[in-house]
Write a structure and sequence with these properties.
alpha+beta
Length: 334
């Protein structure tokens, strides 16, 4: 499959997934789960957020030991909104480097489907694709993906196998469970004039389309997705730069025809902000500083992910400038 060569794979230890579904974030009673975790000084190892679907969703993965500590408000769900949050024992399987190729995501989705291995959601960093599974199927997933790509699987509790995250760590500075008043980053990267592709397809058809898209030069800036629990399809969101195709219309011409169980939507004029920095995933409050700051500034967010050392947020392109200003209040950029 074009562009789908991988060099590494890692599975996490046991994590707890705190999954929040809601209809309207403007409801004054609504408190996003990442804010609750920040208030309880709980670090988020992985975050997936989708505000575009009718049922909006935030999924945070945290270390299971943290939720068991005394005083954690999330443990008993005592401060959750009325619609409730669900917690479950989960794990991450991460494969890298994706080289920003749609074929990488399509190949993994197709492989898992072929082995009848379920997954929950996925998101990308600058180099990885990370898939959330119920913990009991993590080993099966890792084995299937490793066999498909011909790579070895390594186990461990953290995500420092991400080349970006690993490069930011130094020997004396292995874990930093804190958060500064203004968080250091290694640069905030803003893009506008992008296109958001929203695909809901059968996993096999998605794999075929992703391979063809890669052969024709399509690259993504950010990818995330959900696996429909009914088994009728996979939702994959990809932010792409139309300029890496021959023309913007090529994206449309290569989208699959819609059928009874598949849909394809093109959302133009998208924008994206991404940044990375030391110890993201070790410190509480990163997601709340970013997403909460944008919310207070009135910046609409469509999609968001915190994977490894990378934070990615997708929004309308005309909101990017205001988003940069809002983030500068909480984050330092060289």
């Amino acid at each position: 499959m074009a562009g789908a060569n991988m060099n590494g794979l890692k599975k996490s230890g046991r994590l707890i997934s705190v999954n929040q579904g809601f209809a309207d974030e403007s409801d004054p009673r609504f408190v996003p789960v990442y804010r609750m975790l920040a208030a309880d000084r709980i670090n988020i190892s992985f975050l997936y957020a989708n505000y575009l679907n009718p049922e909006k969703r935030i999924n945070c993965l945290v270390e299971q030991e943290v939720l068991k500590r005394p005083g954690s408000g999330v443990t008993g769900c005592s401060r959750m909104p009325a619609d409730g949050e669900k917690t479950a024992s989960c794990g991450l399987v991460s494969v890298f480097p994706h080289r920003f190729s749609p074929a990488a995501a399509g190949s993994v989705v197709r492989t898992l489907s072929g082995k009848d291995i379920s997954w929950n959601c996925m998101a990308s960093s600058g180099s990885m694709l990370s898939f959330v599974h119920d913990y009991e199927v993590v080993d099966r997933s890792a084995d299937a993906i490793a066999a498909h790509f011909g790579v070895s699987c390594h186990s461990g509790p953290g995500l420092d196998h991400d080349p970006i995250a690993r490069s930011l760590r130094t020997a004396p500075e292995t874990v930093a469970r804190y958060v500064e008043p203004r968080i250091r980053t290694y640069g905030i990267h803003a893009q506008s004039g992008l296109t958001l592709l929203r695909l809901f397809m059968d996993p096999d058809e998605l794999g075929k389309w992703a391979s063809q898209a890669a052969e024709n030069g399509l690259k993504f800036s950010y990818a995330s997705g959900e696996n429909n629990s009914s088994g009728t399809g996979v939702m994959l969101d990809m932010v792409v730069d139309p300029e890496n195709m021959q023309a913007g219309r090529d994206i449309l011409s290569r989208l699959p025809e819609t059928g009874s169980h598949q849909q394809a939507e093109v959302v133009e004029n998208a924008g994206m902000i991404s940044f990375y920095g030391p110890h993201f995933g070790d410190r509480h409050g990163i997601a709340d500083k970013a997403l909460g700051g944008l919310s207070r500034a009135g910046v609409p967010v469509w999609l968001a992910g915190c994977v490894g050392a990378t934070v990615s947020m997708v929004m309308p392109h005309d909101a990017v400038e205001n988003a940069e200003k809002a983030l500068s209040e909480a984050f330092e950029s060289p």
